[in-house]
Design brief:
- The chain is an alpha+beta fold.
- It folds into two domains: about 1-90; about 100-275, no CATH class.
- It has four helices and 13 strands.
- The chain has helices at about 1-55, 55-95, 160-165, 170-175; strands at about 100-105, 110-115, 120-125, 125-135, 140-145, 150-155, 185, 190-195, 200-205, 220-230, 235-245, 255, 265-275.
- Strands 5, 6, 7, 10, 11, 12 and 13 form a seven-stranded antiparallel sheet that branches.
- The longest helix has about 55 residues, at about 1-55.
- About 15% of the residues are buried.
- The model is unreliable at about 5-20 (pLDDT under 50).
């Protein structure tokens, strides 16, 4: 028993040495195997360039010409695809409807306004609007939203929501399609139509803490309107415009003390969008 116990450590030691030797050999073999692989990878990385350098001048010229032909073919294909896309877009643009305000609106009555300490009221008679489809496609589901007045004081009066002018017509105005509140009608290619809007009113009411309005306050008056429609594919479109009220003397500023007022409407720069 003692001899067996004495022999066991020797056996374990021999076994451990054998295992260590095996691992060393395995590591050495792996290292030897890895070295050719690394060399092969380096050769692969450099082989293309070496292949080019070792080729004759005639082969280099041949390869260059073939590469140039491939690149030229890709460029020609790209130009062809781009040209087809442009043709498609141009065709769609020409054959979709485009409804615009064909002329400025006409005031069929006068504009009246009244100023008190805490309130400003502006009213108009009927306003006639003209629309026309100037493209080759037919428009369907056409409707006009009720026009709006936007009253802007000539001077700062100390009321932030009035003094800080915010444009009412932006690109987003033409992208939305509100629910129609009036009649809906088609507008064929090249067709024009006029629509009369009923009386338009605007009221500015100040808060109790706001300073009072002056009786001789002077104003600019803008008239805003939008028309919305669908093309034959059902895609929505819109056109919105802003018009400034101009008096017969050419002035665009007035006082309610001069009411009732007559004049015309002119397209305002920057107050227009189409989609």
């Amino acid at each position: 028993m003692e001899n067996d116990d004495a022999e066991n450590p020797n056996r374990q030691t021999a076994s451990n040495l054998s295992s260590s030797t095996s691992k060393i050999k395995t590591n050495e073999e792996a290292a030897k195997t890895a070295e050719p692989n690394k060399k092969a990878k380096k050769q692969k990385k450099r082989s293309l360039w070496q292949h080019w350098k070792s080729a004759s001048r005639a082969k280099q010229i041949k390869w260059s010409a073939e590469g140039l032909i491939v690149i030229t073919g890709i460029l020609i294909l790209g130009v062809y695809i781009w040209g087809n896309l442009q043709t498609k877009w141009h065709f769609e643009a020409e054959h979709r409807p485009r409804v615009v305000f064909s002329r400025p609106p006409e005031l069929l009555g006068t504009i009246t306004c009244n100023v008190t300490d805490k309130r400003i009221d502006v009213h108009s008679g009927k306003i006639r609007f003209w629309f026309k489809n100037i493209r080759n496609g037919d428009a369907i589901g056409v409707f006009m939203v009720p026009p709006m007045f936007k009253l802007v004081t000539e001077r700062k009066i100390g009321i932030a929501r009035i003094d800080k002018f915010i444009p009412s017509i932006t690109d987003e105005s033409c992208k939305v399609r509100p629910n129609p509140k009036g009649s809906v009608f088609p507008l064929n290619a090249g067709q024009g139509i006029s629509v009369d809007a009923e009386q338009v009113a605007e009221a500015i009411i100040s808060d109790p803490s706001d300073p009072p309005f002056a009786p001789n306050e002077r104003f600019h008056l803008d008239v805003l309107d939008c028309i919305y429609y669908l093309d034959e594919a059902g895609d929505p479109h819109g056109t919105c415009a802003t018009y400034s009220f101009i008096m017969p003397n050419g002035q665009n500023v007035f006082s309610c003390a001069d009411s009732p007022l007559t004049g015309s409407l002119e397209l305002k720069f920057g107050g227009y969008c189409e989609n």
